[in-house]
UniProtKB/TrEMBL annotation:
Compartment(s): Cytoplasm
Gene3D superfamilies assigned: YqgF/RNase H-like domain
Major localization class: cytoplasm
Signal peptide extent: none
UniProt-listed InterPro entries: RNaseH-like_sf, YqgF, YqgF/RNaseH-like_dom, YqgF/RNaseH-like_dom_sf
EC number(s) on file: 3.1.-.-
Identification of the protein by name: Putative pre-16S rRNA nuclease
Role summary: Could be a nuclease involved in processing of the 5'-end of pre-16S rRNA.
GO MF annotation list: hydrolase activity, acting on ester bonds; nuclease activity
UniProt keyword annotations, A-Z: Cytoplasm, Hydrolase, Nuclease, Ribosome biogenesis
The YqgF/RNase H-like domain, residue ranges: 1-98
NCBIfam families in the cross-refs: RNAse_H_YqgF
Amino acid sequence: MRVLGLDVGTKRIGVAVSDPLRLTAQGLTVIKKGEELTELPRIIEQMEVSEIVVGLPKNMDGSLGPKAQEILELTEKLRETLQLPVHTYDERLTTVAAERILLEADLSRAKRRQVVDKTAAVLILQGYLDSTR
């Protein structure tokens, strides 16, 4: 079974999925914030997902700010609605790293905006997968 990785932004949620062996993460899609409870069940069934990891945006000192509290509320809602284990993973600087990767790939600003959330989800999921081995 696969693991689903989520990077929750203010307007969009980047989605990544692991391979069946849980070794690598691949970007899957981006969904609009607010549509996660209708879109995620379809993705979970289609991709045979058994657990979810959500990026938790901690402050640089490790404390949790308002955005992190929002993410914790969302993870609880996902647990209740989807009936799957939902973990959080420290996502400090993953969006910055995703932007850097896309800049190095020489993507235009418009194209970067389209894939940065998905790329950040890949980084979150890959970090989680690596930490569980």
